[in-house]
UniProtKB/TrEMBL annotation:
Record Pfam families: HTH_3, PDDEXK_19
Assigned keywords, A-Z: DNA-binding, Transcription, Transcription regulation
GO molecular function, one term: DNA binding
HTH cro/C1-type domain location: 133-191
Gene3D superfamilies: lambda repressor-like DNA-binding domains
Full protein name: HTH cro/C1-type domain-containing protein
Listed HAMAP family: HTH_type_cro_C1
NCBIfam families in the record: PRK04140.1 (NF003162)
PROSITE patterns cross-referenced by the UniProt entry: HTH_CROC1
Length: 309
């Protein structure tokens, strides 16, 4: 089994070959995700683990929240679950995050070949195009009972395939395609994910509360290389806070790389003084400067001013 660093290097290689621009790898701890990548309007947040069972629910929730607010697709790339290697061409799920092997990721991004199978409790399953199956069955004059007998299932099961889009086993799906001599299996798109239900908690950081008072929506983070996503209308800002230090400089550089891929602004609000206006693409704003701002437009103008110097 590859270690995480080698697996991450292979993931970056696949992404570059597929035409994605990638952020620097997140090296600051704690970290919820490892990499951001974009190809045109396709934006991915990737977590990379050799054994996917290492992802916990808290981290998964943070990745999904970040993806929701930055219009990204969260993806977990791994090699094994328990003692089993991930199947090529199958999508797994960990706390709502689509999970792929390196080879499945490459098939999706390089070949445009979406998986046909997903893993759930009890084994591997596929999705049947129930409406198309029903249309073909009726056009050929095949009764529910006759089809059920040939498949060895109940009439109710056939009805559920057609009306309720009930998923089925790989064996049954392949037998259906053989009976009708038509493609009925629908691919699973791991990049189309359900939004996470979110309960907003209070913003407790004093500096982030200043942004609230100015009129921003503030989404605090717990494990990201920035402290919050700050937004108002089309303005989205990756926001860091802290006293000026070497660690803040490292954070600002990583935030610059992430904001470039995410197509956002990035700002570090310094609790104290700094002689620097900008670190790469990240503007540095002193807390006292923030205290003099009353409107979001003034904040945006200040960020632009810092970056122009």
């Amino acid at each position: 089994m590859m270690d995480k660093e080698l697996l991450a290097a292979h993931v970056e290689e696949v992404l570059r070959e597929a035409g994605f621009s990638t952020s620097d790898r997140c090296y600051l701890r704690p970290r919820s995700f490892d990499l951001a990548a974009r190809r045109d309007d396709q934006f991915l947040f990737l977590k990379i683990l050799s054994n996917i069972d290492g992802l916990n629910e808290r981290t998964a929730l943070e990745i999904r929240r970040l993806a929701k607010h930055l219009l990204a697709s969260p993806i977990l790339v791994g090699e094994k679950t328990r003692d089993q290697y991930l199947e090529r061409g199958a999508v797994y799920f960990r706390y709502g995050i689509p999970t792929l092997s390196l080879f499945t990721l490459a098939d999706c991004l390089l070949e445009g070949a979406l998986p046909l199978v997903y893993a759930a409790h009890g084994g591997l399953y596929v999705r049947i195009d129930g409406d198309r199956m029903r249309q073909i069955r009726l056009a050929r004059g095949i009764s529910l009972g006759a089809l059920a007998t040939e498949l060895g299932v109940s009439r109710r099961t056939i009805s559920k395939y057609e009306v309720e889009d009930m998923d089925t086993s790989v064996d049954v799906a392949l037998k259906l395609e053989e009976i009708f001599n038509e493609e009925l299996i629908e691919p699973v798109d791991p990049f189309q994910t359900e939004a996470v239900a979110e309960v907003k908690g209070p913003v407790t950081d004093n500096i982030l509360r200043l942004l609230l008072e100015i009129g921003f929506e503030v989404v605090p983070t717990a494990q990201a290389p920035f402290n919050a996503i700050t937004r108002e209308g089309k303005l989205v800002v990756l926001t860091g806070v802290g006293k000026f230090s070497q660690s803040i400089i490292k954070k600002a550089r990583l935030m610059s790389s992430l904001s470039s891929v995410a197509r956002t602004k990035s700002v570090v609000i310094v609790d104290g003084e700094t002689k620097l206006e900008c670190i790469e693409e990240t503007a540095l704003i002193e807390k006292r400067e923030l205290e003099d701002i009353d409107e979001t437009r003034d904040f945006e103008d200040l960020v632009a001013e810092k970056k122009s110097k």
